[in-house]
Write a structure and sequence with these properties.
Blueprint: E1 4-5, H1 8-17, E2 22-26, H2 35-41, E3 47-51, H3 63-69, E4 73-77, H4 85-89, E5 92-96, E6 99-100, H5 106-114, E7 120-125, H6 133-142, E8 146-149, H7 168-171, E9 179-183, H8 188-197, E10 200-205, E11 210-213, H9 215-232, E12 237-243, H10 251-263, E13 267-273, H11 278-282, E14 289-292, H12 297-302, E15 310-312, H13 316-321
Parallel strand pairs: 2-3, 2-4, 4-5, 7-8, 7-9, 9-10, 12-13, 12-14, 14-15
Antiparallel strand pairs: 1-6, 10-11
């Protein structure tokens, strides 16, 4: 449907093989519109339910919802597989990446133009678009540009795949390339890549079939980030946020940060929440700044939604030193 492969034939066979009776369907926001169609296609195989909860990645599976309704299987669409979840949390999970099947033509031509002067480039993509990388590689090599596809450190991730918080596939090529092309919708993955590698990054958007050099976006982000950190250095009372999401929970880091702040004479409280939400956190009223120990993209992509500084655990060391002269933007992703 709409150039996506939901693999419902495989899904149906797996539901039957696993003898699931009650199934919870979970999709990212952009795919929720397909939920009715998925349910109709799987009708009669098992009792089906739809989760309206957000999911931001394979770290964010709705085990709470599944357990509440007594589901014995979760169909998690839009993200790559994570192993061990079923055994650890008591509900089996099938991950369906939902590969994009569309083609890009004009965008590839723009990529070649933007790479003028670059002979060796690395290729990465969000999970929906990893299957486009081989074709892109061939097109670039026909234009005389040597292209390599990165290998992520996570064995369940696909060749060339990046996440908003994991650019190991790109880093595997760091000594071999002088520029990168990231195939993904929008600038979300490309910006994270640019912060990580500090090299020229071309964002190839398959939906708009356009390519863009995002050097300016990277520079704007770094300036804004350093301003937020300067504000945070004036804070005296911090809220340290811990997410209860299964793949984001990090109480250890929160306790360590609280201890380090205390040694500097700074006050902090640890806040537990499932969904990190600006309206929810600003109801607290008392924090001068917020430290996120959950998904690092919260601070990166939503910092303008907060009237006070929002920083990540990887950036706390700059607060403790009171010095930004050695600031590395990759710490915003830690």
């Amino acid at each position: 449907m709409e150039n996506y492969d939901f693999e419902l034939g495989r899904v149906k066979r797996e539901i039957i093989r696993r003898k699931a009776k009650r199934v919870l369907v979970q999709l990212p926001n952009g795919f929720k519109k397909f939920s009715k169609w998925i349910i109709e296609e799987l009708e009669g195989v098992a009792e089906m339910f739809i989760s309206a909860s957000h999911t931001w990645g394979p770290c964010d599976v709705d085990f709470k919802g599944a357990k509440t309704i007594g589901a014995d299987l979760i169909l998690h669409f839009g993200h790559h597989p994570r192993t061990g979840y079923g055994k650890k949390y008591g509900v089996d999970v099938i991950f369906i990446p939902v590969f994009y099947l569309g083609k890009v033509y004009r965008g590839v031509k723009e990529v070649i133009e933007l790479l003028e002067g670059y002979q060796r480039v690395g290729l990465v993509a969000s999970v929906q678009h990893v299957k486009a990388l081989d074709e892109l590689k061939n097109s670039l090599e026909e234009a005389g540009i040597e292209a390599q596809i990165g290998i992520p450190r996570e064995p369940t991730m696909f060749k060339g795949q990046v996440l908003g918080c994991d650019y190991s596939a790109a880093l595997s090529l760091a000594d071999k390339v002088s520029a990168y092309v990231c195939v993904a919708g929008g600038l979300f993955h490309s910006l994270g890549l640019a912060l990580t590698v500090n090299k020229k990054v071309i964002a190839l958007d398959p939906y708009r079939d356009r390519a863009k050099d995002i050097t300016i976006e990277r520079e704007k982000f770094i300036r804004k980030r350093m301003y937020k950190l300067m504000e945070a250095m004036e804070a005296r009372y911090f809220a340290i946020v811990v997410s209860t999401k299964v793949g984001q929970y990090d109480l250890y880091s929160a306790l360590r940060i609280r201890s380090a702040l205390k040694e500097k004479g700074l006050r902090s409280e640890i806040i537990l929440t499932d969904e990190v939400d600006a309206e929810k956190l600003m109801d607290l009223m008392w924090p001068d700044a917020i430290i996120i120990t959950a998904c690092p993209r919260i601070s990166i992509d939503h910092m303008d939604n907060y009237p006070i500084p929002l920083i990540n655990k990887g950036e706390v060391k700059y607060l403790l030193k009171g010095d930004l002269s050695s600031y590395d933007p990759v710490d915003a992703l830690k």
